[in-house]
Design a protein that fits this description.
CATH architecture: Up-down Bundle
Number of domains: 1
Largest sheet: none
CATH superfamily: MFS general substrate transporter like domains
């Protein structure tokens, strides 16, 4: 681990100013959003809404991303990344403030749509921006470092969120698990989000992407081959949507944790993601990109089963940490794997298509899970997630194990792969 960290420090010094500013923006946005996210589900239930409605709210942002990713990619192709990132931050601020201040069902759903639009803008901008501002040698490190920074910020945000909620509960004399305390914490997260505008303003690309005929970049992509490359992660997205949006509910309802303990345990999840992301590039250099993804995903499945069915707090916490570290270690590896299949002018289009597909699958699962939890608890959602992760790992093994990770996705290339 020491050599891995030392290597990251050396690589970090070589990152471009744009890459460093984007990493800072990633930290600030993730920190604010994790403070908000820890208490949001609890806040909605405290308002008297059912888990079915919570499932609807959880699905709306992902459905919005799925609907808007491609149109936004076409529209914002003529704008520099700086403007896209600022627009994303502004929409996120409006969404978070709106969900904290308005309690009606319709306003909550409207601001959930704004949240999805913000996430769509960030998603379609992030991967191409990092790819344009990194060399082939440092690209895997940048993607993994960005993911680790996001997760580290999530770790800090969850800890701060639990503390803030207890603080506001005391100040407001409302109890640290009251709607008023949750709301105050959510508004504090909104204030912190404003700081993300500073690094966004400093991002100035010296090499502009091809902004002409942006819609033609979509038509140039062979959808069949592209979907085959994206399929393993889309299956993972459906499985993740069954469980991940509801982990705070899973821990609180299953083990009766107070908000401080919940904040601590939830903070371990992004910390595990960060640890996995930092280890990802090391394993890629040892065994290759596809083998690394297969190893991470297959090893996570037993821990997922332990997490869902042990019924004991300590084994569940340890299994959650291990599963999260392993499964999410493959995400930045997959991101580079995905982009390597597309020519540079097509990368933003490919990112938009992938973002739309991932969030559609995730939203459908989140919506279904909210309904299933009312009838079966978390048993069936966990079983579905296990099946999805197993299927995704099997597909990677059968289709891409022997693939050259730098091969472009073309009808010819995919034909050779299938044959």
């Amino acid at each position: 681990m020491k050599s891995i960290i030392k290597n990251y420090f050396a690589v970090f010094k070589a990152f471009s100013p744009n890459a460093r500013n984007f990493l800072l923006l990633t930290f600030l946005v993730s920190f604010a959003q994790s403070i908000f996210a820890l208490v949001f589900n609890l806040y909605i239930l405290k308002l008297g809404y059912t888990r079915d409605f919570l499932g609807t709210l959880g699905a709306i942002p992902s459905l919005t991303i799925a609907a808007l990713a491609i149109p936004l990619a076409v529209f914002f192709a003529s704008y520099p990344a700086r403007k896209s990132l600022l627009a994303s931050a502004a929409l996120s601020f409006a969404a978070m403030a709106g969900m904290a201040l308005f309690t009606g069902g319709a306003p909550l759903m409207f601001f959930s749509v704004l949240s999805g639009a913000s996430a769509a803008l960030l998603a379609i901008t992030a991967m191409p921006l990092m790819a344009r501002n990194s060399s082939e040698k440092e690209r895997q490190h940048l993607f993994s470092f960005q993911f680790a920074v996001s997760m580290t910020a999530g770790f800090a945000g969850s800890l701060v969120s639990g503390w803030l909620t207890g603080f506001w509960g005391s100040v407001l004399s409302a109890g640290d698990e009251s709607a008023a305390a949750y709301r105050a914490t959510m508004l504090a997260a909104c204030a912190l989000l404003v700081a993300a505008a500073l690094p966004a303003l400093k991002i100035k690309e010296t090499q502009n992407p091809d902004k002409k005929n942006s819609s033609s970049h979509f038509s140039a992509i062979a959808m069949g081959p592209a979907m085959l490359v994206m399929a393993p992660q889309l299956i993972v997205a459906f499985g993740a949507g069954m469980i991940m949006p509801y982990l705070n509910i899973f821990f609180k309802s299953g083990f009766g944790l107070n908000i401080g303990s919940l904040g601590f345990y939830m903070s371990l999840i992004p910390l595990a993601m960060a640890a996995g992301a930092l280890a990802g590039p090391w394993l890629v250099t040892k065994i290759g990109r596809v083998k690394a993804m297969i190893a991470f995903q297959s090893l996570s499945i037993p821990f997922l089963a332990t997490m869902g069915f042990s019924g004991l707090l300590l084994p569940t916490v340890l299994a959650t940490f291990a599963r999260t570290m392993l499964m999410n270690a493959s995400w930045p590896v997959y991101s580079v794997f995905l982009l390597s299949h597309f020519a540079t002018p097509q990368q933003q289009a490919a990112s938009a298509i992938y973002t739309a597909g991932w969030n559609l699958a995730n939203a459908l699962a989140a919506r279904l899970s909210g309904r299933l939890q009312m009838d079966f608890g978390f048993t069936l959602p966990f079983l579905i997630t296990i099946v999805c992760y197993s299927a995704a790992t099997l597909l990677l093994s059968r289709r891409f194990l022997k693939e050259d990770s730098k091969k472009a996705v073309t009808p010819t290339a995919i034909k050779e792969e299938i044959e």
